[in-house]
Structure formats: C-alpha cells, structure tokens
Amino acid sequence: MTKTTNLSRRHFMATTAATSLILGAGRALAAEPIKTAGIYTVPVEQQWVSRIHKAALAAQDRGDIAYSFSENVSNTDYARVMREYAEAGNTLIIGEVFGAEQEAREVAAEYPNVAFLMGSSFKEDAALPNFSVFDNYIQDASYLSGIIAGAMTESGNIGMVGGFPIPEVNRLMHAFMAGALEINPDIKFQVSFIGSWFDPPKAKETAFAMIENGVDVLYAERFGVSDAAQEKGILAIGNVIDTQADYPDTVVASAIWHFEPTLDKAIAEVQAGSFTATDYGVYSFMNQGGTSLAPLGTFDGKVPAAALALLAQREAEIKSGAFSVTINDSEPSSS
To answer: 88, 199, 243, 274: which has the fewest C-beta neighbours closer than 10 Å?
Structure first.
C-alpha cells in the first residue's frame, strides 16, 4: 500500500451542482440503514484497518448502516472493487486509497451520488464533491506515549519500526519522539521502515537488529515489533490498538485511534443529504474523541511519578486547546 506520489491535481470531470444535495437525500426520514461498503488492502485484523472495521460494525449494530466489506484488495484491483460496490447500490463507501489515489478519485467522479470516505495522503478537491478524505491524526496520544517511553528507557536508546515513511506514519513518529525528548532530552532514536503494511516477520527481524544495537524500548508502529521486544525482555509502545493483553510484560502504553467520530460524522452528513468534499482528519484529534492513551494496566505503578504528572498536564492542555502537538509529516531519521 505504498503511497502514489504522482497524483495529478487536475480537476476531475465536472459533476452537477446539486451533487452534494443529492447525496443521501431523504435519508433523514428513511427507516432503512445506509448501504455501506468497506474496501481494504490488508486484512481487517491489521491495526489501522481494524479501527475502521470496528467503527463500521458498531454503526451497523446501531442500525445506521448495512455493512459489507472486502479485504486484501490489491491496489491494481481497487478501482474495480469500488465500481462493483457502487453498481451494487452502496451509497457510502469507505476505505484507504494510499496506493490508488488517482484511480480512486476517477471512479468517484463516475458515481456522483455515492459518498466516498477514503483514507488518503492528499486533500479533498472541491471539483469532486462526493470524495472526502481522512487520516489517523493521533499525534496527540502518540506524544503522550512518548513521554512514557522517555521515562522508561534506561539506555536512552529507543528504536522505531514503521511501515512506510509517509505522512500518516511520520507524524506519529515525530510526535512520539517529541514526547520522549520532553522528559529526557538526551534520548537517541534508531528509525527504520520495513516497506510493508503487514509483514510481522520482517518487522520482528528489524526490531531484533535494533535490540542488538542497544535499544531498550521499541515503538511498535507495525505488528511483529512487540514480539521481538517480548522475546528479548525489553519494553514496547503500541500504536493504533492496545495489545497489552497479548504482551502484558512488554507493552507499557499505546496510542489508540478511535474511528467512530469520523465515521459517525460521515453517516450524519449522508443521512442529512449534505455530504460533500471535506477533510475529516480533525475527528481523529484527542479533543474530538478520536484518540486516547490506553490505560497503563499491568504497568500501573511502574511509570515514574514525574512522567505521570507531565502526562496528566499535557493531556489536559491538549483537550483544552492550551497545548498543541506539532504535526510534522516529514520523514524522521535516526539520531
């Protein structure tokens, strides 16, 4: 799911001026749930997609949507699957198009009465009013998890294993590093990307190499990293989901992504007939309920008091707007 870097910024074919009003027209009074499809390039068990899937299942349980999905869809097949779901009568289609940006937007232009809510590295286009974008802007919780990591490292050497150096990964790593450095400005980082969204063995081997090079805390942006940490008896920080139950002596904290605010906003717009192109990224912010720090659980009482005090202060300031975590999408590097 590598990011397409040559997305054309040209405007796509014009749609009718009434498109945004047509989308979902009459749904506010309709008894039927919104027919919704999810299209994913990885298994629904994968961290990032699992959060979208979880929110969709919750919306279906409420009766807001009728949900079907396809997983492990290749980037080359993505446009075809989008068309199939649109032709099947789905009026809301969600997914992630990082590796099929241009093709996905061209398909969306062909179906102006279908609302598309897609994970994307790019922004919305006013000329394509039925295509909205989102991303996991969970830098707030990532920053807080970095504070914990900075307090827990004894070597001052932290390893970070990511999938690809794209904005949605880079911003979380930078936030994590900033949190760690706030409590311990002498920390050094080893940064590596495995070139895959789902390759636990490769992530594990990369983590092993970092451990051999002296790290005692690992940032587990990918599955496989916490396995290495557990085997070698060091600590890990989770990302997007809470895996402490699987690694009770290893995973200290995790930055959790809650996709529910993003999806619920889109559902409301489709129901009201007002869905239009916008950036839903803000609904992943902590003050919108889109991210949180997982409970310390098995590490309760093991994190230094000074770190907990700083964490509580920063969390309150983030929620009130008194403190903003910097969003840095540039590729991080080892230090």
So the answer is: 88
pTM score, whole prediction: 0.85
| pLDDT for residue 114 is more than 90 | yes
Question: 266 and 201 in one domain?
Answer: no
Longest dimension (CA), the chain: 61
SS3 of 49, please? helix
Domain that holds residue 106: 19-135+260-283
> Which tokens belong to 294?
């997982």
Mean predicted confidence (pLDDT) in 179-184: 97
Q: How many CA atoms lie within 13 A of 67 on its CB side?
A: 21
Distance CA 103, CA 135 (A): 19
Element (H, E) at 219: strand 217-220
CATH code where residue 236 lies? 3.40.50.2300
Instruction: Give the three-state DSSP class for 252.
Output: strand
Residues 6+ apart with CB under 8 A from 65: 33, 34, 35, 36, 56, 59, 92, 267
The DSSP code sequence of 126-195 is: TTSTTEEEE----HHHHHHHHHHHHHH-SSSEEEEEES--SHHHHHHHHHHHHHHHHH-TT-EEEEEE-S
For 225-251, what is each residue's pLDDT tens digit?
A: 999 999 999 999 999 999 999 999 999
- Show the tokens assigned to 194: 């495995």
Q: Are residues 172 and 223 in the same domain?
A: yes
